[in-house]
Amino acid sequence: MDSNRPRSVRGRRFSPRTDRIGPPGGAEGFDSGIQEDAGRCAKRPGYQREHLAPQAGGRSGDGIGSVGARHYAGGMLIGAHVREDDPVVSAAERGADIIQMFLSDPQGWKKPPSHPQAQELRDSDVTVVVHSPYVVNLASLNNRIRIPSRKIVVQHAEVAAEVGAIGLVVHGGHVTQGEDDAKGFDNWRKFVERQQAEGGFAVPIFIENTAGGENAMARSFEQLARLWDAVGEFGVGFCLDTCHAFAAGLELVDVVERAKAITGRIDLVHLNDSRDEFGSTRDRHANIGKGTISPDELAAVCAAAGAPVVVETPAEGQAADIAFLRERLA
Ligand SMILES: [Zn+2]
Question: What is the pLDDT of residues 7-47, one digit of tens each?
């Protein structure tokens, strides 16, 4: 059986198998938070600062890869990153099949509390994916960053399982300028290898590609290949963010094909337009058609990826983003 496939079907718990380490991913700014994030990200030229790490997430079924049962039933899961205070209502307001949310302050290191709507989320038809905090950087050579990052990711996976999440998005992270990036890739390997030895993660991990930084772990295809050399054998998942890819200078026309050639999978798409130009390295999301990426190209990425899609765009335009994608992908 495919050890890579995510095992987080709603209502079904992850078995204590090694393939729980499934798809990691990551997202940058979301929702109302997305606009704030967009502003914040704009102030940072890449990933030079330790506290700015990446994120991602999605639902899985009995099918191949990480796509949920509803995908096979006809129609991809399409949704949005929403605030965590009332995700069920937020999903309904947007017409979302899937929602992504944080479980704690994305800039903080606190252990996430159990979500008050955990039962409701598990019982609902809405697929859930969780995004880990931005402070996480599993590649960091700094013990004071890397060690708490490991801890908080494991904790987030546990609470993500409580809400029936299909995965936990984690940004690829980075080392600091002048440091040996090989050590960053090795830190990823150690983290996943050790967690697997302890029974795996409570939900699959989706590593997300990031927008900027020369020392990133998941920005260019070359970096992604080195990262997958380190963690691919453990069945880790992948979240493709279109804004990050575009900002990183990756052509969207064949990004799915090229990424899949490396990772063998796409578990989640973060479908975001970009406020900045191709190759800008800036991470500022925009609603579809409000940025610099062609809506046709964005829709084509979703179609090619065949994975659940989450928009991490300004909240007021999310319903329209979802409606557009649903129409184009029908
Ligand atoms: Zn993203």
Answer: 333 333 333 333 333 333 333 333 333 433 433 333 223 22
Give CA–CA dist 324/134, Å, rounded: 28
| Domain assignment present for 174 | yes
By the 8 A CB rule, do 217 and 139 touch?
yes
Distance 271 CA to ligand 1 centre (A): 8
Query: What is the sign, positive or negative, of the torsion defined by CA atoms of 37, 93, 115, 170?
Result: negative
Rounded distance from Cα 155 to ligand 1 centre (Å): 21
* Residues 6 or more apart in contact with residue 24 via CB below 8 angstroms: 56, 167, 168, 169, 170, 204, 205, 206, 207, 208, 236, 237, 238, 239
Residue 89 lies in a domain: yes
SS3 316: helix
Cα 25 to ligand 1 centre (Å): 8
Pairing of strands 168-171, 237-241: unpaired
Q: Ligand 1: distance of its center to the CA of 99 in Å?
A: 13
Strand partners, 208: 239
CATH assignment at residue 316: 3.20.20.150
Distance 317 CA to ligand 1 centre (A): 16
- Cβ(139)–Cβ(174) under 8 Å? yes
Taking the CA of residue 86 as centre, how many other CA atoms within 13 Å lie in the half-sphere pointing to its CB? 5
Neighbours of ion ligand 1 (CB under 5 A): 27-28, 241, 270, 312
Residues in the chain: 330
The one-letter amino acid at 306: G
Domain of residue 202 covers 29-44+52-211+224-329
Residue range 250-282, pLDDT digits in tens: 999 999 999 999 999 999 999 999 999 999 999
318-329 and 295-305 helices, crossing angle to 10°: 60
